[in-house]
Amino acid sequence: MFVLDVGCGNSPVGDVNCDLYSKDTEQHRSFDTANTAINSRNVPNFVVCSAEFLPFISACFDVAVSRQVIEHVAKPGLMASELVRVSRDLIIIETVHRRGERLEPRSRQAWFKQHHINKFDFTVFAALAQKLGCYTVKSDVLDKNYVLRFLGLKLLGVPMGIRVVWSKTVRDWYLYSGFKSRESYFASVGLTNIDK
Ligand SMILES: C[S@@+](CC[C@H](N)C(=O)[O-])C[C@H]1O[C@@H](n2cnc3c(N)ncnc32)[C@H](O)[C@@H]1O
After folding, report:
1. pTM
2. Distance 87 CA to ligand 1 centre (A)
3. Could you read off the pLDDT of 7-54 as tens digits, one per residue?
4. How many domains does the chain divide into?
5. Does 193 reside within a domain?
6. Whose CA is nearest to atom 13 of ligand 1?
7. Is 195 a domain residue?
8. Which residues of 32-60 are buried (b: 16+ CB within 10 A; e: fewer)?
9. What CATH number does residue 108 fall under?
10. Which end of the chain has the least Cβ crowding within 10 Å, N or C?
């Protein structure tokens, strides 16, 4: 699998990794910009570019992955269309859910308001996938925030971190591809750790 990580920051997972800000001048990674510069020597095949204008030819990666980035860009639809364009098949997008984000502590809300587009949920991604001609093959809640917390109890959980996996090629992928389960499909495309 040949993987592109878009908005890799300091935790790249791609064979090719890109980010618009090698120095965190816009504080997308942290308030403390002092230690968050990307050391390109530690990042395989680092490219400085915008997620909305990827400088790669169409379908040149097997997977385009982007984690906690789409909520930072001015035109998320344009970014999503670029991820779809450069991928041959799979697109993986992780972000924060609009409802979960609103339950973050007040101390973090100012930063969120300044840096995040608070609009994403599974419905938004389903509509976007349809518009871009992709099939949603997996949607996950990665973690939750809670409306009520007391005496160690957590009640009324709402999604915070979410992930969608789209395919450009396979609709009922586990039927048509001959795989018996989602897990074996993902194992076949090298994504065995995707749930961990
Ligand atoms: C919250 S960090 C996530 C970093 C990394 N993906 C991770 O999960 O640790 C958001 C990243 O998106 C990058 N970013 C923000 N706007 C961008 C854009 N228009 N194009 C590319 N990267 C962008 C920031 O520089 C930052 O590294």
Report:
1. 0.89
2. 19
3. 999 989 899 999 999 998 888 887 666 678 999 899 999 999 999 999
4. 1
5. no
6. 7
7. no
8. eeeebebeeeebeebbeebbbebebeeee
9. 3.40.50.150
10. C
